[in-house]
Amino acid sequence: MENSTLSFYFNLTMFMNIGHYRYLAFVFCLLLYGFIVSANLFMILIILRENTLHEPMYIFIAFLSVNSLYGSTGFFPRFLMDLLSDIHVISRPACFTQIYVIYTYASYELTILSIMAYDRYVAVCHPLHYHRKMTSKTVYTLVFFAWVCPACYLTVSLNMVVRLPLCGNNIQRIYCASWNIVKLSCVTTAVTNIVAMLGAIIIAFLPFGFILYTYLRIVVACWKKSSEVRGKVLQSCLPHVISFVTYSITSFSDTALSRENLDEINPFVAVILSLEFVIIPPVLNPLVYGLKLPEIRRHILRILSLKPQTKKNSHQTLPESTLTM
């Protein structure tokens, strides 16, 4: 056990030596981070300032943008520093802080998508009861539990990882990941594995199952309706479906990568699979919701063209929040 808890730092070993191209990569990633921050802030500000967007569906979109800012800020500053550095070491406190931020970001993304699915289910399947069920109290209660429950679980789970005695300090990732640290443990990790499995069921599989169930109900409810109604439902639900599918693919890729022997995978492919999880959803979400939802798109175009809001739209209410069928 003399090598346990080797040092106070970890070495991130997945960074490739790309020579002077690292400056080009740095500029590209800096611009990408700037776009993520600008686009998501713009989305939040539009929803905050426009009274017609103070409805559950748009409030949830704003929280999704807040989470994108949270997750990308937990990843990009450190990543940009590492791109310009020849030594990729990170202290234990910084590493575990990064794990907490990135993993809570991932959990929040899924729980927010879950309550957005519930909102669409109520709007489509129970439109006459929408305002009674989706009150302001209900909205903020759902958001509260969507943020608190993952944070509590990950605090307990990460605390168990922090306590593990380690016999190495090389992490085969470009950012800190808990499973890679667990694999460095000098002792058996059966208890940690059981807690992680139970947590995955609660934090991941239950929300996934709930989202799939709600959309099955939506499909059944729209099956025999007119093409006009189906088109309206599709317009309202498509951005959420795109966000959910994107999240599912990128999170599955990240999870699969953690379980694979990275020595057998092309380094460039491994880096891409690591990056997409923390880059694609924050980039794609504001684009999808900004371009696909007419109410948000209308306000964006009005702001960009600097045209004053016309009165005929000032009394418009819930164009997509409730779908009368």
Helix-strand layout with pairing:
Elements: E1 9-12, H1 21-49, H2 56-83, E2 89-91, H3 92-125, H4 130-133, H5 136-162, E3 170-171, H6 178-182, H7 190-222, H8 227-259, H9 267-292, H10 294-305
Notes on the structure:
With 325 residues, this protein is mainly α. Helices cover 71% and strands 3% of the residues. The protein has helices spanning 21-49, 56-83, 92-125, 130-133, 136-162, 178-182, 190-222, 227-259, 267-292, 294-305; strands at 9-12, 89-91, 170-171. It has a three-stranded mixed beta sheet. α1 (21-49) packs parallel to α9 (267-292) and α5 (136-162) runs antiparallel to α7 (190-222). The longest helix has 34 residues, at 92-125. It is globular and about 60 Å long.
In short:
The protein has 325 residues and is an all-alpha fold. It has helices at residues 21-49, 56-83, 92-125, 130-133, 136-162, 178-182, 190-222, 227-259, 267-292, 294-305; strands at residues 9-12, 89-91, 170-171.
Q: Enumerate the spans where pLDDT stays under 50 for 5 or more consecutive residues.
A: 1-5, 310-321
Rg estimate, integer Å: 22 Å
Number of helices: 10
What structural class should be given to the helix and strand makeup? Answer: mainly alpha
- Classify the beta-strand content into a percent band: under 5%
Helix fraction by DSSP (H/I, runs of at least 4): over 70%
Strands, total number: 3
End-to-end Cα distance: 67 Å
Q: Describe the largest sheet.
A: 3 strands, mixed
Lateral strand order in the biggest sheet: 2-1-3
**Integer average pLDDT:** 82
- Shape type: globular
- Give the topology string: H per helix, E per strand: EHHEHHHEHHHHH
